[in-house]
């Protein structure tokens, strides 16, 4: 049951921050540098991943949503979320810390007590009541000064995610699913991932952080004091963004803040038992579309009338308007767009990013 503070305007001191960067090269040719994953509908819901992210946050924050994105994507973000209250536009990509840090510096000026909750723009989440409840718990712990993350129970020894080593339950806050974080471990190799899974002591880091804006900047100040100065300068004088942005170190929030703060005992994790998927490649996309598989086992994203399947399993993304026919293929991945066609298998889905590198290396950047 959502608590009373979830209705109408949501949690009054909470603002959602959505860093929307990256190009999702493992989803080429659907996702391109100029039109990354978050701008696409990957679930067949009619809403893009960015729109769905905003939709699911609305009950928590009303219209207090801040998207941080690159100049190249600003117009598309505005077009997809016309009601967006705050759009912070980065002159260049500096990874997630400067993006989230700038949002924190802007919010801190508006309200010294402000809490921010940062979520990727391109993830899929189920069980919305549970999601809202756990974010609510995270906010209550964040008000007490914790950097709070939401941790997902791992289902397989993934090597593409960071892991969170969970400590004892937090003896504070009206937040029964909160625990101390002993450590963050960024993207382990397969063997360590297996050990983590078997131990039961680890959760996946889903890139969700809930924290008071001032606390985030204070934690960042311990590692990157100059970055905090610059972010506060930009927040105070937005006209200086262009001049100052390029001086910021490109670093992920995990390395800049989460890992050192965990070592200092400042981080809590809320166990989050909702479905979560970062739709990292076409194998994940096929899993995500499982329920829409035809009776032979083929999933279609796009117009189903444009796909004729005879005895094939896997996934077809039909985005060119052409008819796609699959005949007798197992676990195939077909992605048909106006100017590029990808044919591979679910098993090789991770290697699609190498194709993008190959296209770059052979002078065909216009396709990436
Ligand atoms: N605005 C902006 N956002 C950025 C930038 N770089 C990254 N981001 C955003 O920051 C978030 C995380 O960046 P990724 O590059 O997608 O991170 P990752 O390698 O997948 O790893 C992180 O996320 C995983 C979960 O998806 C975690 O498992 C892992 O530990 C880590 O937190 C995403 O929302 C991404 O859009 C940037 O330059 N600008």
Automatic annotation (TrEMBL):
Pfam families: ManC_GMP_beta-helix, NTP_transferase
CDD domains reported in the protein's UniProt record: GDP-M1P_Guanylyltransferase
InterPro entries in the cross-refs: GMPP_N (IPR049577), ManC/GMP-like_b-helix (IPR054566), Mannose-6P_isomerase_type2 (IPR051161), NTP_transferase_dom (IPR005835), Nucleotide-diphossugar_trans (IPR029044)
Alphabetical list of Gene3D superfamilies matching this protein: Spore Coat Polysaccharide Biosynthesis Protein SpsA, Chain A
Segments forming domain Nucleotidyl transferase: 16-291
SUPFAM superfamilies associated with the record: Guanosine diphospho-D-mannose pyrophosphorylase/mannose-6-phosphate isomerase linker domain (SSF159283), Nucleotide-diphospho-sugar transferases (SSF53448)
Record's protein name: Mannose-1-phosphate guanyltransferase
One of the GO biological process terms: GDP-mannose biosynthetic process
Molecular function in Gene Ontology: mannose-1-phosphate guanylyltransferase (GTP) activity
Span of domain MannoseP isomerase/GMP-like beta-helix: 306-357
Lineage start: Bacteria, Bacillati, Actinomycetota, Actinomycetes, Micrococcales
Superkingdom field: Bacteria
């Amino acid at each position: 049951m959502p608590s009373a503070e979830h209705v109408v305007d949501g949690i009054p001191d909470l603002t959602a921050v959505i860093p929307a960067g990256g190009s999702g090269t493992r989803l080429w040719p659907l996702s391109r540098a100029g039109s990354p994953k978050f701008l696409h509908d990957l679930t067949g819901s009619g809403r893009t991943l960015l729109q769905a992210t905003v939709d699911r946050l609305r009950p928590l924050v009303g219209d207090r949503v801040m998207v941080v994105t690159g100049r190249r994507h600003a117009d598309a973000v505005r077009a997809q979320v016309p009601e967006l209250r705050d759009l912070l536009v980065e002159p260049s990509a500096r990874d997630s810390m400067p993006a989230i840090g700038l949002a924190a510096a802007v919010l801190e000026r508006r309200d010294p007590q402000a809490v921010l909750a940062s979520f990727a723009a391109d993830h899929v989440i189920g069980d919305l009541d549970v999601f809202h409840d756990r974010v609510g718990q995270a906010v209550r712990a964040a008000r007490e000064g914790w950097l709070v993350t939401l941790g997902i129970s791992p289902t397989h020894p993934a090597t593409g995610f960071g892991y969170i080593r969970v400590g004892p339950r937090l003896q504070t806050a009206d937040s029964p699913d909160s625990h101390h974080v002993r450590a963050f471990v960024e993207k382990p190799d397969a063997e360590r991932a297996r050990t983590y899974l078997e131990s039961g002591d680890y959760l996946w880091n889903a890139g969700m952080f809930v924290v008071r804006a001032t606390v985030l900047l204070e934690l960042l100040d311990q590692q990157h004091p100059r970055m905090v100065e610059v972010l506060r300068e930009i927040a105070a004088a937005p006209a200086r963004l262009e001049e100052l942005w390029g001086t910021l170190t490109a670093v992920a929030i995990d390395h800049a803040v989460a890992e050192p703060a965990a070592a200092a005992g400042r981080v809590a994790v809320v166990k989050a038992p909702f479905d979560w998927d970062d739709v990292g490649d076409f194998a994940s996309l096929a899993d995500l579309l499982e329920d829409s598989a035809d009776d032979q086992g083929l999933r279609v994203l796009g117009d189903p009338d444009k796909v004729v399947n005879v005895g094939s399993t896997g996934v077809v993304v039909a985005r060119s308007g052409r008819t796609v026919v699959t005949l007798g293929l197992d676990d195939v991945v077909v992605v048909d767009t106006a100017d590029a066609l990808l044919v591979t298998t679910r098993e090789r889905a991770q290697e699609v990013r190498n194709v993008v590198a190959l296209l770059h290396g052979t002078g065909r950047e216009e396709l990436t």
